[in-house]
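Hi U.,

Before I forget, here's the chain from the pilot set. I'm dumping it here mostly so it's searchable later in email.
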Amino acid sequence: MDSRVWIDVLVFLIAGASFPMVNVAVSRLLRRDWREPSKLTTYETGIRPYGDARVRYSIHYYIFALIFLVFDVEVVFFYPWAVQFRELAQMGPFAFVEMALFIVMLAVGLIYAWKKKVLRWA
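Structure:
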């Protein structure tokens, strides 16, 4: 193998490692160096925080959020399938059957959550 390839890799490695360090050093040199008391508070708008930051939430909130996340992530699987549907349809019914099974599994999960009354907010 030619050693010039490794020289290119070494140059990119050094450039990649030094780029953030140079940017941090330059930003430290160019920043304003006075501290405002409002910048040290939780909210930089100047609004005084009140109460404890650790507030208890209902467990329903987490379960509801988890179910939302599951059904939101399914879009990640639907989109490429929908984009390539015509090409996949030419190969046979396998892609359609596979997505139908996926939708059925999601529907079974939704029905299970509905039966367990997870989707009720109160």
